[in-house]
Amino acid sequence: MISSPHRSPDERPGGALRDLSADVSERAAPSSSRTSSETPGVLVIACGALAHELKAIVDLNGLDDLTVECLPANLHNRPSEIPDAVRARIDRARAVAPERPILVGYADCGTGGLLDTVVAGYDGVEMLGGAHCYEFFATSPRFAEIQDAEIGSFYLTDFLVKHFDRMVWEGLGLDRHPELLPMYFGNYTRCVFLAQSDDATLVADAEAAAERLGLSLLIERTGYGELETTLVEVGRRPR
Fold first, then answer.
1. Residues 6+ apart with CB under 8 A from 132
2. How many domains does the chain contain in total?
3. What DSSP element (H or E) covers 157?
4. Helix, strand, coil percentages, rounded to 5, for the chain
5. What CATH code is carried by the domain that includes residue 130?
6. Structural contact between residues 178 and 231, judged by C-beta atoms closer than 8 angstroms
7. How far is the C-alpha of 126 from the C-alpha of 38, rounded, in Å?
8. Of the candidates 31, 69, 104, 207, which lies 20 to 30 Å from 94 by C-alpha distance?
């Protein structure tokens, strides 16, 4: 699913592959030795939190026409910085190849529509649809069902489970101020683990994370959802 510009932001409170992030701990090895300036086809400028999933999708589907470059994963916790970071990377790419198609591997992701505005300012640039990665992993209809069933849901993905301490616990300052836990999570009623893989270790880690937050746990196995269908559609589009 690819977004159209000017999508209303959600107001609820998550080829070759190069990792441009200094803070993504699980670095995906390039599936090609070519750099983006040497590689024809679509450039995907993506969230570093998706690096593992993007490499898997590219490899599984033989999407040799895609080159994926990841921005820092910790922008997940600083969404106001995403639009400028994406704009800078688009401008660098267009300086080398002005006509190259680009897919921005972010949904709105808490930017309040500002990322849509950035993307709408370029010809030949698209972005993922939906409000956030939780929606495109679960697919929009299923995410709406989960959220409507229990609005006080806190979401985890494979990446957030693997990096729960750094991205959630330390990211919210709970390692320094555990007394803030009720303030942050007092209105949540459950934790939903949107699992991209079938990994018993991650399930156990998700259970431990939910327990630390004082929440029950629902496990929803999503696979790669609309992230995969979008990349396949873009990667196989006639050019």
1. 10, 14, 107, 108, 109, 110
2. 2
3. none
4. 45, 15, 40
5. 3.40.50
6. no
7. 21
8. 31
